[in-house]
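Translate sequence into structure tokens.
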Amino acid sequence: MSGEIAPGWGKIRLELTRRRYLAAIILLVAPYLMAAGFFLRKMELKAASAPNAAPVTATNGAGDAFLPCHPGPWGELDYIETPEEFLSVRSFEATDSRWFFGGLTRESALAFLGQAGLIGEQKKELADAKWETATNGVYVTPPENVITSLNPETREKIYNKLAQNNENSSQQDVFFFPPDKLDGIFDKSGVAPETVALVKKLCYPHGKLLFFADIPLVLRGLPHYEDKMRLAKTVSRRPTLLMRLHINSGTNIKNLLSYWAKAGQEKDLRPLLESLAQVEGGARMSLINLLPPVPSARLYSFPYPSLEPLEHDNCHWTSFNFFKDPPDNRFMDGKFIRQALDTEYSQVTSDYRYGDVVLLTESSGEIIHSAVYIADNIVYTKNGGHFLSPWMLMAIPDMLDAFSAMLPPEESLKVVCYRNRTL
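Result follows.
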């Protein structure tokens, strides 16, 4: 096997090192998926207004516009972004507001805070705040006016330090935004202008993103539950993709099958696609109907919490079992995954195809996440090993942002792609 992560790629991370990392991923990508599980279990066909109508002109009946993907060998795909709440305001408000400095004393913590850029009254107020000594460090309860008065650079230094300890869940369970999209996130959200201004003031830079860690503070200051929920919905909104394939009488079924038919699926897909091509005006088919049994049964759904923690513990189980029915539970083991990559896969550097395994690796070569390429830079992924993390579709840049957000700002992730030679 050739490629930049072989033979020294060695490690495959099966469990994330931060206890709270999972919760962050849930907040970043899981909200707004609940509705999808109810209506995407059935094939969704929708006649277009004309054989060559642009997909963006159709709707799903609820006012959500179809947005076209880029054309390619996958055919004419489109998707919609469907919001649905999956939040708990009360859990945010109940978050411990103390700062924990692991391995430090009160004096050394104050020294660090001074080096981070605290000035004058800020330093005095923190020194006079409530300090508590623990066996592995110290806690301090920072006054709210100190928190809100921090400049972004000082906040970044302090919060990056706090994020190294699991006790500081707020600094680990962050929301993030691309700086150029922050205004748009609050557009037509109904969040009061003064609340928006406070959120912006509390944001701090982290690499190419802006982090927001102080939602408990902001929520506790809002008078009405409706205002709290409106803010929580807005800052946690991340779209998932609900993809459909557009087929009409001019569709080249042979070319579609050469892209989508893998692992013996052609016998089932050919009659379906040929039938839909005869529908007057064309038809749209949910992507679920193109996928193999294991991913199609899980897409847009959440694992049952009562089930033995197996398939929802590991993104690699999800990725490497994409075409397998029944699934092979040996893909819970990093050594077995490494052996499969060595013996059954080859690295590809361009022209990714349906079914390729997309790996996110650190600079050391350690694999921290895997997903399956679908089309147009979109992957099938399960972000986080928990029953609250659903199987979903996601653009690769968004997936990179979600996982990079948990790394130090000077570190970055690399996308490496492998293709199964046996398919």
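Note: The chain is about 35% helix and 20% strand.
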